[in-house]
Amino acid sequence: MRKLHLKKVNVLGIDVCDIRPERAVLLSFEAMRSHEFDTVLFLSAVGSLFCQNTPWAPELVNGLPLVVPGDQHTELAVSRQMVEGDNGLGKFTDEYMKRFLSRMNREYREIFAVTSQQDRLTDLDAYLTENYPNITMQGMVYESDTEGGADKVVNEINAHIPDALLLLLPVADQLMFLKDYSPMMNTRLCICIESLHPFIVKETISVPRWIRVLHLESLYRWFNREEKLERTIAGSIFKKKVNEDSQTEAGHDEQN
């Protein structure tokens, strides 16, 4: 990906790009046509907290060409505007994925997905088959506690040479892959999102009629998301740290 001159906002030590989803998709496809390995990383509250507590992670993430908001918490930290709703991964990520997959479908592209659970891989395959039938999807489950598991994943990626790699893994596993295996992976574009399950649920879940009549769709989806609790806890800690960081900066400005 060519050197980008984008507006960035420092979020707890990580520079997050403040751009629109359609621009991020455009840059992603430019990267796909390049001759280099490029990464788009969606930074969530969980990912941000991981970086704060892992000495080597901030340098790695800040060295990536495109780090964008990965949930409503980082969206709020970047835009300083209220982000309404929580029906997916965040407005930015949801819009990016819709545009990205639609264009992949139009261009008959191939995706290789790496997940931590077989059911997540199966759900993604079913979702793409139903909604984006021109996308060819290959994939593999990565078990971090299995000896040689990462090498097997890299070998499978290189056997298929996909247009785009989706690393749908916990942030620690994502960053390990980027740190240790980036030069070995034969693909042009790597997209790191901890999970697409909330996006798939949002796009496909069937809401009963009586729920729609009472305008309770958001509450219904809230109870149907497995990852809601973890994201809520991480978001609360993340917001506390962001507020503390802002107060510290304000104090320094007053002293100067």
Describe the structure.
The longest helix has 28 residues, at 228-255. Helix 1 (21-32) crosses helix 5 (91-106) and helix 2 packs across helix 12 (228-255). Strand 7 (164-168), helix 8 (171-181) and strand 8 (189-192) form a beta-alpha-beta unit. A 6-stranded parallel beta sheet has the order 4-3-8-7-5-6, sandwiched between helices. It has helices at residues 21-32, 45-52, 57-62, 72-79, 91-106, 118-131, 149-160, 171-181, 197-204, 209-213, 217-223, 228-255; strands at 8-11, 14-17, 38-43, 66-69, 110-115, 136-141, 164-168, 189-192. The relative contact order is 0.15. With 256 residues, the protein is of the alpha/beta class. The protein is built from 12 helices and 8 strands.
What's this, in brief?
By secondary structure, the chain is an alpha/beta fold. It contains twelve helices and eight strands.
Summarize the topology.
Layout: E1 8-11, E2 14-17, H1 21-32, E3 38-43, H2 45-52, H3 57-62, E4 66-69, H4 72-79, H5 91-106, E5 110-115, H6 118-131, E6 136-141, H7 149-160, E7 164-168, H8 171-181, E8 189-192, H9 197-204, H10 209-213, H11 217-223, H12 228-255
Parallel strand pairs: 3-4, 3-8, 5-6, 5-7, 7-8
Antiparallel strand pairs: 1-2
